[in-house]
Amino acid sequence: MSPRRVAFDVLRQVSGEGAYANLALAKNLARADLETRDAAFVTELVAGTCRLRGTYDAIIESASGRGLKTMQPAVVDLLRLLAHQALNMAVPARAAVDTTVKLARETVGQRVTGLINAVGRRITAHALREWVELLSAGLDENGRLAVATHHPRWIVAAYEKVLPENELAQALEANNLAPKPTLVVRPGLAQVEELAPAVATMYSPFGAVLDGVPGDLTAVREGRAGVQDEGSQLVCLALDRVNTPDGPWLDLCAGPGGKSALLAGLARRRGEYLVANEVAVHRAELVEKALAVYPPGTVNVICSDGRDSEPVRARRPFSRIMVDAPCSGLGALRRRPEARWRRTPDDVAELVLLQRALLETAIGLLVPGGVVAYVTCSPHADETTGVVEAVMADCPDLKLLDASSLLPEVPNTTRRGCVQLWPHRHGTDAMFLALLRGMS
Fold it and tell me: Does residue 377 have an active-site annotation?
């Protein structure tokens, strides 16, 4: 199967079936068994097309003179792939058009090749920079920034609320830079030195950044190390460093298990055990797999709704609780290229209700003086400080701790008494952390 056909199949799954780009890409690459160079081409073609999809859609509509809904979805995906090759991958215009016409003939049929050829030639008549200028004409500053950085306007507005003006463009542009894999060791089971040739992370004592394939490393294959963003590691480290009474730990929203695997090792070092709860059965199975490397008695995996879980309540109270709440994922857009075009402001409003319910439940499960770490992989004000302030208003006995003081090695993290990490500042996902101490 040709690399472009693999990319097309992945994009159809992402666009037509709602698949996650990274998962669909991995499955299709495994089936195709391409050479390394071709696999890299497919990876960039898929990720880049998903990342700039909104921009390419505007270009396609301008070049075709018609709305996307008037075209077959498969044709739109073909034109998106064509646009990324010609405008962002240095593939010669003629080659991008000709190969896409051929791919259209093989996948959709001869009858669409004329449209692909005509629209493709109009797309390649301008460089991406020129298209951005054309599409930005007449827009206000946020509109121009949205086009230039390839984000929906509502995300630009959300970032604007929480960042200094001089960092806004830099933060948005950082979302377009794909990160290298970041690894993490399971405390007590592996050492960072075992992850060589990966280079130690800047802040986390458990991590390393790899320029390669994680599965090539023995510690990863054996489950003694895994893949986890450094920001995700740091919020676990902060929870470990805070002073609390003795008692078991809880990861209330544990799937797919990355944070649980690190928390389990940290709890074990203190002579405690971890309860890992996950609402979805298939994700709970992933948690069990991630934690299987630890000795019996270290962890207990539960599958239940964290908002009202009798199995969790039966094991209360907990000294430290991690609430890594389901969120919009606006802090991990560099890793999830399709997410920025899938999420909407309505999604955020719905998620906020869930986030508040989970945090309120966690507070009720604390031992006196225990601490909840409220975490999101989103900097959106409604999902972060908004949730914390609303819950604290309803629970006046809660105390907001200075989370940044627990990560003194990480500069410029303080946000209204909480921690906010950023790709452009720290090289991590934009993780948010609030630490709340229950009544003593």
Answer: yes
